[in-house]
Amino acid sequence: MNKAKKAVMFTGIFIIVAIAIFVSIAGIIADFKWLVKLGYEVVFWTDLKAKTILWAVCFVVFFILTYINFIYVKKNTEDRLEQDNPWNKITRVGVPVISLLVSVVVGFIVSRNLWVQYLEYFNATNFQISDPLFAKDISYYIFKRPFLYNVLNVILIYMFFLTVFIGLIYFIKGVLVDQRYPKIHLSILVSIILALLAISYKFRIEGLLFSTKGKVFGAGYTDVFLTLNYYKVQIVVIVIAIVLTIYMAVKGKVGRHIFSGIILYFSVAILGSVAVFIVQQYVVLPNELSKESKFIEYNIDYTKKAFGLDNIKEIEFPDNDTLDRDMVKRNQDAINNIRINDYKAALAAYNQLQGIRKYYRFTDIDVDRYHIDGEKTQVFISARELDKNQINNTHVNNVYKFTHGMGVSVSSVNEVTSEGQPNFIVRDIPPQSIVKELNVEQPRIYYGELTDDYVVVNAGIKEFDYPSGDKNVENIYDGDGGIPLKGINRLIYGLDRRSFKLFISSYVTSDSKIMLHRNIRKRVNRIAPFIEVDEDPYIIIADGKLYWIIDGYTTSDQYPYSQPIIRENDYINYIRNSVKVVVDAYNGDVDFYISDVDDPIINTYSNIYPGLFKQMEQMPEEIKAHIRYPEYYFNIQTARYNKYHMNDITVFYNEEDVWRFALEKYWNEKVEVQPYYMMVNLPGQDDVEFVLARSFTPVNKDNAIALMMARNDGDNYGQLCAYKFPKQKKVYGPLQVEARIDQDTNISSQLSLWDQRGSDVIRGNMLMIPIEDTVLYVEPLYIQSDAGNSLPEVKRIIVSYKDRIAMEKDLKTALEKVLVTTAEMDQDKAEQETVEELIKKAANTLEEIKSSSGQGEWAEFGQKLEELERIIKQLNE
Q: Quick check: helix, strand or coil at residue 510?
């Protein structure tokens, strides 16, 4: 082959290789340009630097280890062979090649799996809290121990396979029988493995802090006084085995004594396991409270700290039976914001009444508050997004034509139309607002919850904007979002998107821009994968624009003594809502704000990625006014608080005061009451506040025991308050109110009548609303026709207060009914009740008297006895 042909051949190979490399890294370049556009290139460079350093360190270390060991093997095997033996030739080439391959592979595995832990290790922020056994800061267990333990495991696995492989070579070459140095070599390798195993017991000892063997999570009596010492004995046994192995290798007696060491190790392990079982069963369990009390106290203390339950403000709720017209007047702002619409029904109404076209969809209804006409007002709000599953599936439609959703709809939570549907404050396309505070000047939604694909804007074809009569209004994007597709960018993103059409399309011009990662949750996760993103983003109107707010969490499963929460695919025993993420629905800008400056995990990531996070003080006030305490976080905290409100160790151990979430009839099914937002005047507070609440009842009982609330406004944001109801008085729980609704003759007869007319009666959420020193219950009642596609309509509002209950067409009338004085109510009842009804009521009251006496509830017993006397008196009359 002449020089010209060789040059052509090598040039062709070079071009092919270069193209292959460019294609393979196009995705990396695309991600880098995308991060640069958002201003977060620090994420790219930090991650790349960490992976590179880890790979380089592993490459050097494991190359040296592998090379030295195989050189030694080569030396010990070549001495017995002729110099021209093929084995010699193989080893001369194989040693460096194998060393290179091993180090490259191990370096790749380590860098790919441990780079995050590596960054956490070297940027860890202290918790300023130490574990109760070893007095190490919690940061060690969350940031450092996992990295060290995984590094140890990598080395241990590597040494094991290296030893096995070298042993096989020595065995195949027959040098183990009469050669001394191979035996010494293997003994050293085995000793290193044993030393690593001994070190691993340090992590096992620390791992007792996460034990599940005792009464509660964390090290218990058996772990501390037996298992810990048993592990220390195992370390001593391993050290003895190391000494024996090396000593006997020098003496040329390896095999038998190695097996003796192994037998000793497993013998101690078996004896230790038996001892642990005996102590746990026959020493601890018969005296569990006394033996485990100290460790139960640790569990209570550290669980509260890990789940943010250590600063809950617990308040005894007075419940003074004082609801009257003066109290209503004082709390008019809260009463004006009582929600008489239901999420599920409202979502159906939004989609049917405000969807406009089949390709628009509202995915969720969120509750928020806005200042309207100077008053803080609670509203429903939802984004009208584009559902591309409902349009003709073509490349032009998907990429260039249908690019964005259009606006939001907003309705009052406390009003319905004459048809029983949400009363819209913002409606239609483009969105029209009846109040100036909710004007939307830029309604287009390019980034949202349904936007799972990329689009190209400023193309050679105008975008569909919104329908108008028989025509469609078109638009040209004029925002800052997207990456220009001019120059090499068009090739890069064509390769990244695996789209040849994008590369050749005549619609792509020098002004065109590609919008990537438009799903807001995935967008945030792609920038900061170490943050757990809430599944329920919510949209807000601020300064005439639309923004999404997403809550971000830092979590861990390595918090000592903290009782874990089991989730679908994992468990956690530490969580903080440390980040508020704001995404511009039009431009796609993403801003991360630290909402919990005391969280060491988010401070660690702030150290890792300087410039990624902003302080809450930097958030625009128009947006800050809409941050909410997230339901997901509140769910987890309340799930832990139902048991960890008990501070007394004996009470906790016996589970004497365990709570459960209150139950209600929702959509005609018995379900747990979910957290709900509401506006209230908290006891001792003058101004109405936006809070998130959830009610509790005792286990196996339905009376209300507590109402937990998270405050959302101003400086009080994040404060948890637990209002505990007096145990000596019966406070109705939501399910008991539901039962009273069913037992009310007037209400039940009306419900039965509606059910017989081709309609379904549906109950909305039962809201438990504190009004100063008492509690009011409100529930919307829906009627839905059996005819297809009919919407549930609010037909009645049920209000309950103590023993009073009313069902009326509006909240005001129903509230007036329950505010009637006791004397007036008694008179009305006396005039309306028939003898038959009084006999039935007497029988029911007698059963309640029996139940009260049987349960020792003497206060209720006395009340019911007086009620029975009144009924008998009416019967006599």
A: coil
Among 73, 89, 294, 303, CA closest to 165 = 73
Q: Which of 194, 186, 187 is nearest to 169 (CA)?
A: 186
**pLDDT of amino acid 503:** 83
In this predicted structure, what is the pLDDT of residue 832? 55
Tens digit of each residue's pLDDT (9 = 90 or more) over 255-299:
555 666 677 777 888 888 888 888 888 888 899 999 999 999 999
Q: Are strands 689-698 and 659-661 parallel, antiparallel or unpaired?
A: antiparallel
Alpha-carbon gap, residue 667 to 846, rounded angstroms: 32
Does residue 549 contact residue 623 with C-beta atoms inside 8 Å?
yes
- For the CA atoms of 227, 231, 234, 238, the dihedral, rounded to the nearest 10 degrees, stands at 170
DSSP string computed for 363-396: ---EEEEEEETTEEEEEEEEE-EE-GGGS---HH
Question: By the 8 A CB rule, do 539 and 548 touch?
Answer: yes
Q: How far is CA 604 from the centre of its chain?
A: 19
Measured distance CA(372)–CA(383) in Å, rounded: 20
Yes or no: say if 193 and 261 are a contact pair by the CB < 8 Å rule: no
CA 764/CA 793 separation, integer angstroms = 11
Pull the structure tokens for residue 76.
């010990």
Is 627 in contact with 580 (CB distance < 8 Å)? yes
Taking residue 14's Cβ as centre, other Cβ atoms within 10 Å add up to 10
Look up residue 810 and give its two tokens: 């509006």
Query: What are the phi and psi torsion angles at 791 (to 5°)?
Result: -100, 145
pLDDT reading at 758 higher than 80: no
Residue type, 745: T
Distance CA(842)–CA(639), nearest Å, equals: 40
Q: Do 425 and 411 contact (CB within 8 A), yes or no?
A: yes
pLDDT tens, 556-602?
Answer: 999 999 999 999 889 999 999 999 999 999 999 999 999 999 999 99
Whole-angstrom distance, CA of residue 373 vs CA of residue 820: 32
Rounded CA gap, 868 and 842, in Å? 6
Cβ–Cβ under 8 Å, residues 778 and 767:
yes
Helix axes 520-527, 3-38, angle to 10 degrees: 110
The whole-number average pLDDT for the span 76-105 is: 69
Contacts of 178 (CB under 8 A, 6+ apart): none
Residue 302 has pLDDT above 60, yes or no: yes
CA dihedral (665, 670, 676, 678) in degrees, to 10, reads 20
Residues sharing a CB contact under 8 Å with residue 190, sequence separation 6 or more, in sequence order: 163, 245, 258
Neighbours of 561 (CB within 10 A): 26
DSSP 439-481: --SB-EESSBSS--S-EEES-SSPEEEEEETTEEEEE---SS-
